[in-house]
Every structure is written in C-alpha cells, then in structure tokens.
C-alpha cells in the first residue's frame, strides 16, 4: 500500500533525514499523527497535491507561505492498522464509541466537534493498539474553500500514522513537485 504526503518543497530534505513530524493540532481529523492520502475513493496523488497547494495559503497574511510543493510517497508497516473504510471497521468503531463515551465525557464536554473527534480517534487507536488509522473523509478543495461550499460526502481516503517509527525512512521518495499557484 502506498501513502502520499503533500507539503512544502523546502521540507523534503528534513523529512528524508529525520522522518515526518506528527501533527498535534487540536482539531486534527483522525487525532495526532502524520497524515497521508492513500488508495480508496479517489486518486491519492491528486489529493496530496490539492492539499499541498491549499495548505500553502495563509488566511492571516492572505499570501502563500511557500511557492513550491512536493508529493512524497512512503512505505509504511501496516500490520497494526484500523481501517474504517470497510463495514467491519465501522462496526468496530461504532461499538467502541458507545462503550467509551462514558469514559471520555469529561474530556469532550463543551468542546467543539472537531476536538471531540480528535480525542475519540486517539482513544480508538490506543484501545485497538493501532499504528495506522484509515478513514474516508471529506476535505474541501481549493475551489470549495474559495467559494465557501462544502459537503458531508467523503471525497478521499486518509491515513493517520500514529507511530512514525513504522514509516520506512529509506522508502521516502518524491513523486511530483510543482508551483503552488
């Protein structure tokens, strides 16, 4: 299984030397981890490119933070994977969600939905001892961001790698690069 990550071209050397750094944003879709696009409901390379280009834009400055993007492909050990793109995976997720809500209610009460989801996904990965979580998500395209439209229908398959040590450093390679705008 191939995994694709879109980012600033300037980060390529650091990533190849030091590996990826897990995102710890409070509203990460699938919790703390390194995010990749993978095979599923759309082309992961196109998804990674769209993400890299969209991520370049800074709302505060109304300018791009970087001018060149890169799509990196990495090989990842998927022996401990939690895949909710299947019915079986969704059944497990929903069963665990019901069982764990009582335990996590103090952590999620009065928090925005995206923060609640992050906490829930991190807990699911921990309970299932999963190094990778795969899920179908809806992510706004650049067009949708600019025109303020959205949907609730998934348009890509995303993998969140919880344990960076399973990313094979020597497998990281450039697949595509180009200008952001």
What keywords describe this structure?
181 residues, alpha+beta, 9 strands, 35% helix, DUF3990 domain-containing protein
Write structural notes for this entry:
It contains 5 helices and 9 strands; from the N terminus they run βαβαββββααβαββ. With 181 residues, it is α+β, with helices and mostly antiparallel strands. The protein has a 7-stranded mixed sheet with strand order 6-7-8-2-1-5-9. Strand 3 and strand 4 form a beta hairpin. Helix 3 packs across helix 4 (113-127). The longest helix is centred in the middle third of the chain and has 22 residues, at 87-108. The protein starts with a strand and ends with a strand. The mean pLDDT is 92.
- Total E-strand runs: 9
The shape, in one word, is globular
Radius of gyration: 17 Å
Whole-number count of domains = 1
End-to-end distance, in Å?
Answer: 30 Å
What topology, given as strand order, has the largest sheet?
A: 6-7-8-2-1-5-9
Query: What percentage of amino acids are in beta strands?
Result: 25-35%
* Helix run count: 5
Helicity level: 25-40%
* Overall average residue pLDDT: 92
Give, in order, the helices and strands.
Answer: EHEHEEEEHHEHEE
> What structural category characterises the helix and strand content?
alpha+beta
Poorly predicted tracts of residues: none
Q: What kind of sheet is the major sheet?
A: 7 strands, mixed
């Amino acid at each position: 299984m191939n995994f694709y990550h879109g980012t600033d071209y300037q980060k390529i050397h650091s990533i190849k030397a030091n590996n990826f750094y897990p995102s710890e944003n409070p509203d990460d879709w699938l919790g703390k981890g390194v995010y990749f696009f993978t095979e599923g409901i759309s082309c992961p390379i196109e998804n990674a490119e769209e993400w890299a280009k969209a991520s370049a834009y800074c709302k505060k400055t109304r300018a791009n933070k970087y001018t060149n993007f890169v799509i990196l492909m990495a090989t990842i050990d998927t022996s401990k994977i939690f895949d909710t793109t299947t019915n079986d995976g969704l059944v497990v997720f929903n069963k665990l969600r019901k069982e764990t809500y009582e335990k996590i209610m103090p952590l999620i009460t009065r928090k925005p939905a995206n923060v609640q989801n992050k906490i829930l996904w991190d807990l699911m990965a921990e309970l299932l001892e999963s190094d990778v979580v795969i899920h179908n998500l809806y992510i706004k395209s650049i067009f949708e961001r600019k025109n303020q439209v959205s949907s609730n229908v998934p348009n890509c398959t995303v993998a969140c790698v919880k344990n960076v040590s399973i990313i094979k450093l020597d497998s990281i390679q450039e697949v595509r690069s180009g200008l952001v705008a």
